[in-house]
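Bench log, entry 3. Co-assembly request; chain sequences pasted below exactly as received.
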Amino acid sequence: MVNVKKVWLVCSFIGIVLSLGDFAYASLTDGLVAYYPFNGNANDESGNGNNVEVNEATLTSDRFGNPDQAYEITEYQYLSLPYQIVNGLYDFSITFWIKLNKLNSSLNNIIGIANDYEDNEFNFAYLASNDRFFMDWKGSINHSFGINNSVEDMNWHFITFSRNGTFCTTNIDGKRIEGDITISSENLIAAEKGFVLGQDQDSVGGGFDSSQNLSGKIDDIRIYNRVLSESEIQELYNIGNNLPPDTHCYTQDDLDAVKQQCKNDPASCGISIYSGYTQADIDSAKQQAIQQCKSDPASCGISVGIGTEGPVATLSESLFIDIPLIKYSTLLASFDLWADFEYYGLTPDGLHLWKLTDFGVIGE
Ligand SMILES: [Ca+2]
Ligand SMILES: [Ca+2]
Ligand SMILES: [Ca+2]
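Structure output for the full assembly:
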């Protein structure tokens, strides 16, 4: 049987997620070995005293337009970080915001770590010719992450690189890039002066090539001596966008939990049941409703906004998912939907964009 429901899903959902959020927020300082917000200087604000040595790079405006709140790197400029931060690390995560100014013919190297016997101990770069992020590990250069050219729009993007044992992953704007890389089970080795941002080293602390440098802006760098979870990455992305602390409630895991809860116990989602139609009527209408909504999301009240692939639902900032009911004139019946969303960030006018990736009827 069917029901009348609209926003109950959201009401249950908020309670669940706020508690998750508090937990996740507290852990973001765990394992944080260096943090560079670049508030007019290159100091480490993690409390570990790992200040950056600036080599010709200049303070510049950040992604909000605030002056002297990020660093710009061009030609042979670079940032030199204390090598002890990464020397001997096994698992680690590095997050930062970046804005490319130009696509170099060779590559845009972002992170470079070298030691006395290997100048490409670890590199992390963007390779415009292949539309890929790219990494070197222990001198092996045949690693590249799945195709992703989002950084070529020359806007700010939030990038995360994580080494988790023998697996390496990259996220952009909180979303995982396809194509994990498998590496050897060895610790990272950095020599003194061998940890730089903005250049590829061909000798420790030098051997730079102006077709392999960063050519862009970098900000809010965080280095962890552990692997960040997907939800922590999403949370750092939200914080970096000045989103409300609880905005991260719309992670996929959270939505899955609510969806499951509604399926297990529809009453907990406020679903009420009434009679009046045969089961055959209901089944038929459900199928029509699903088909109609999938082929034409606007017909079931989902507003479509800017999107790179598929429909995008525009939701308010008040943590409110409003999927209007599907209505059938022949039956005058309505159905409850669950929905999966993927977060796409802010529009220029401040709307949060979510892509509707899947949906179904609650209880099925
Ligand atoms: Ca900053
Ligand atoms: Ca080189
Ligand atoms: Ca090199």
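Residues 1-26, 304-334 have pLDDT under 50 and may be disordered. The CA atoms of residues 139 and 312 lie 42 Å apart.
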